[in-house]
UniProtKB/TrEMBL annotation:
Protein name per Swiss-Prot or TrEMBL: Acyl-CoA N-acyltransferase
GO molecular function: acyltransferase activity, transferring groups other than amino-acyl groups
Signal peptide location: none
Domain N-acetyltransferase: 183-286
């Protein structure tokens, strides 16, 4: 939902949003997104200690969000019991409600530059630029000097397309330029884990974009190339998605992503987001483009 950040208050929980139902001429916040945030709050904020204000970000505006629901019984009225005989006067009443139990989001390209190895990120800002960091991890480590984003990279945090398209240094699975889809914010409520819900969400997102791989490819006019030739040399200037996925996985979740074919990009190293160790992982799938 474009401009969602103008409606959603990151300092309030999803069930406290003043514009949830829409008012003062504003459209309501989609219930699916509110449900996704409820799951993320339970997992990332309540369980893992991420500050509530950091859980919502500007990527939510342009992402596709999925939510899985479970049907659960919610008490409506407790049973009324005769205090003398213990007999039930009125039985307990309940109703079936939909409970959001899992979510994932897909962020289309373009993306911010990849995090720096050894970086400590708080609300997407590196807090230890200039530090020499030694990281020890089976998924990427070593000694590195943490550097902040350059002025050009900071510019790209807010400007969708930059010419020439030199976005990142090359790594094991990414040449630094190729567009990719980013999966993230995968979360499942604690009581529903171990049932394959996370895997179902990953498969659903991959299958959905794989069936419409041109969906986020920009038109030449979108990025200022109205006069670009449609010949091969000209078409190569326009970003096209060719089946590459990325995720920034918590180290504890690496095995789950590996079961779906994702591989750790060790050249990207390891970094901290909100105090939690993360690594970059990539997956390549085959896609069939129209035309």
């Amino acid at each position: 939902m474009p401009f969602l950040h103008q409606y959603y208050d990151p300092n309030l929980r999803s069930n406290q949003q003043p514009y949830a139902k829409g008012k003062n001429g504003r459209l309501p916040i989609p219930q699916t997104f509110l449900d996704a945030m409820a799951v993320r709050e339970a997992v990332y904020v309540d369980e893992q200690g991420v500050p509530l204000a950091h859980e919502f970000d500007l990527e939510d505006d342009r992402s596709v969000h999925w939510v899985i629901y479970a049907s659960v019984q919610k008490p409506v009225a407790e049973a009324v019991i005769d205090p003398t005989t213990g007999a039930i006067i009125t039985p307990r009443r309940s109703e079936t409600v939909k409970l959001p139990i899992g979510t994932i989001r897909l962020v289309p390209f373009p993306h911010r530059p990849q995090p720096r190895a050894g970086g400590n990120y708080v609300s997407d800002v590196v807090t230890n630029a200039g530090a020499d960091i030694r990281t020890i991890s089976p998924y990427g480590g070593g000694v590195s000097t943490v550097t902040d984003f350059t002025d050009e990279e900071k510019y790209r945090l807010y400007v969708p397309y930059v010419w020439p398209p030199q976005y990142d240094n090359p790594s094991d699975f990414h040449d630094g330029q190729e567009p990719y889809m980013k999966l993230g914010r995968l979360s499942v409520l604690k009581g529903f884990r171990g049932r394959g819900i996370g895997s179902q969400l990953i498969r659903t997102a991959i299958k959905w974009i794989g069936e419409q791989p041109d969906l986020f490819d920009p038109l030449a006019s979108d990025i200022g190339f109205e006069a670009v030739s449609k010949e091969k040399s000209g078409s190569e200037l326009i970003p096209r998605w060719n089946g590459l996925f990325c995720c920034h996985a918590q180290e504890a979740a690496v095995p789950l992503w590996q079961r779906h074919g994702f591989q750790v990009d060790k050249t990207r190293g390891r970094w901290m987001e909100e105090g939690i160790p993360h690594v970059a992982m990539f997956l390549r799938v085959g896609v069939e483009k129209a035309g």
